[in-house]
TrEMBL record:
<keyword id="KW-0963">Cytoplasm</keyword>
<keyword id="KW-0413">Isomerase</keyword>
<dbReference type="InterPro" id="IPR022896">
    <property type="entry name" value="TrioseP_Isoase_bac/euk"/>
</dbReference>
<dbReference type="GO" id="GO:0006094">
    <property type="term" value="P:gluconeogenesis"/>
</dbReference>
<dbReference type="GO" id="GO:0006096">
    <property type="term" value="P:glycolytic process"/>
</dbReference>
<feature type="active site" description="Proton acceptor">
    <location>
        <position position="175"/>
    </location>
</feature>
<comment type="pathway">
    <text>Carbohydrate biosynthesis; gluconeogenesis.</text>
</comment>
<dbReference type="GO" id="GO:0005829">
    <property type="term" value="C:cytosol"/>
</dbReference>
<dbReference type="InterPro" id="IPR000652">
    <property type="entry name" value="Triosephosphate_isomerase"/>
</dbReference>
<dbReference type="InterPro" id="IPR013785">
    <property type="entry name" value="Aldolase_TIM"/>
</dbReference>
<dbReference type="Pfam" id="PF00121">
    <property type="entry name" value="TIM"/>
</dbReference>
<dbReference type="InterPro" id="IPR020861">
    <property type="entry name" value="Triosephosphate_isomerase_AS"/>
</dbReference>
<comment type="function">
    <text>Involved in the gluconeogenesis. Catalyzes stereospecifically the conversion of dihydroxyacetone phosphate (DHAP) to D-glyceraldehyde-3-phosphate (G3P).</text>
</comment>
<feature type="active site" description="Electrophile">
    <location>
        <position position="102"/>
    </location>
</feature>
<feature type="binding site">
    <location>
        <begin position="10"/>
        <end position="12"/>
    </location>
    <ligand>
        <name>substrate</name>
    </ligand>
</feature>
<comment type="pathway">
    <text>Carbohydrate degradation; glycolysis; D-glyceraldehyde 3-phosphate from glycerone phosphate: step 1/1.</text>
</comment>
<feature type="binding site">
    <location>
        <position position="219"/>
    </location>
    <ligand>
        <name>substrate</name>
    </ligand>
</feature>
Length: 266
């Protein structure tokens, strides 16, 4: 079975409303060409909260429209939670999916495993799809703990899912912390090895690892995207820095479309 390939852009705390709208428009305009008729690739963009409304008109549900993502989501439905933005607010802003557990949130904003699990559940309950980020720090990889760290993050986020929530709406992105924004990419072998471990864990947890798109993130650029996809286990990317430029983001989408077409032809 061929899995959907996702190319998602995480704009982080960059771009005010107008530049966000311009970038979204450039991506939306270039997408039909970059997809080149490929039906196996979907794209999403995650601007900052305050630019969601300026970006939303350039997004949509269609095959050749970028999905609108949020970079985070509050863990509560509503109430006295100063500064938080809940799932219903994001839905109202036309957001389709929320990123949870990004390593920058884990490192700088106290998003520990339990909070990530709570955000994930709140997002699903509120009607959003979820991109769950997991990944080890450099010292954990150097100590040979990378697989255990990632599996424990996955397990904390997904094991206690309430039965009414659909785990099929969660896409996992493996993002080794040492590769994010550093220019250092995991090798295709390192990323594939981790993806295979994640699939094994998902299978053991009854979450259909084989059917799921698993993404990689960490210094993905137009010139390394094809090589990462060719490794076989990687079904797309969460892209930070290279998603801030329409041309590089679209070039990554083109690599993904070429890969999808050649996999379908096999
Ligand atoms: C990210 O922020 O999720 C990311 C992978 O960033 P970069 O592509 O810049 O490494």
């Amino acid at each position: 079975m061929s899995r959907t390939i996702w190319v998602l852009g995480n704009w982080k705390q960059n771009l005010l409303r107008e530049p966000s709208a311009s970038l979204a428009k450039a991506i939306a305009d270039g997408l039909p060409d970059a997809l080149g008729g490929s039906s196996g690739v979907r794209v999403g963009i995650a601007p900052t909260y305050l630019a969601l409304d300026s970006v939303a008109p350039h997004t949509g549900d269609g095959r050749a429209a970028p999905r609108l993502l949020a970079q985070d989501v509050g863990a509560q439905e509503a109430g006295a939670f100063t500064g938080e933005v809940g799932p219903a607010m994001l839905r109202e802003a036309r957001v389709q999916a929320a990123i949870v557990g990004h390593s920058e949130r884990r490192a700088h904003f106290g998003d520990h495993d339990q909070l990530v699990a709570a955000k994930l559940q709140a997002a699903l309950a509120g009607g959003l799809d979820v991109v769950l980020c997991v990944g080890e720090r450099l010292e954990q990889r150097d100590a040979g703990e990378h697989e255990a760290v990632v599996i424990s993050q996955l397990s904390a986020a997904l094991s206690g899912l309430a039965p009414e929530l659909d785990p099929g709406r969660v896409t996992v992105a493996y993002e080794p912390v040492w590769a994010i924004g550093t220019g250092r990419t995991a090798s295709p072998a390192q990323a594939s090895e981790m993806h295979a471990a994640i699939r094994r864990w998902l299978d053991t947890a009854g979450l259909q690892g084989a059917d799921r798109s698993l993404l990689y993130g960490g210094s993905v650029k137009p010139d390394n995207a094809a090589e990462l996809l060719a490794a076989g286990e990687i079904d797309g990317f969460l892209v930070g820095g290279a998603s801030l430029d329409a041309r590089s983001f679209l070039d990554i989408v083109t690599s993904a479309s070429n890969h999808a077409r050649s996999s379908q032809a096999r």
